[in-house]
Amino acid sequence: MNKSINIQDTFLNQLRKENIPATVYLTNGFQIRGIIKAFDNFTIVIDSDGRQQMVYKHAISTFTPQRSVSLMQDNSSEE
Asked: Could you read off the pLDDT of 36-71 as tens digits, one per residue?
């Protein structure tokens, strides 16, 4: 049972579950600082300054979390 790790989902899920503040850099140079609230295959929802924003992933260049994120999956605590 060799299950491949989806790094993108693992990374975003840790940001969401641990409420880690992150800066999202868009391809147009705009920056959004906030907390990831939800994500799917095409979008993320980020809470920034008390406002929710839905951003399409194709418009995102980089995520920079305020602290390091563990990429080790803990299967016992999946939600």
From this structure: 999 999 999 999 999 999 999 999 999 999 999 988
What is the domain range of residue 29? 7-67
Beta bridge partners of 4: none
Which of 6, 41, 46, 50 shows the shortest CA–CA distance to 26?
Answer: 46
Tell whether pTM > 0.90: no
Q: What total of structural domains would you count in the chain? A: 1
Residues 6+ apart with CB under 8 A from 58: 42
Query: Tokens 């880690």 — which residue?
Result: 20
Specify the CATH number for the domain of residue 22: 2.30.30.100
Residue 46 lies in a domain: yes
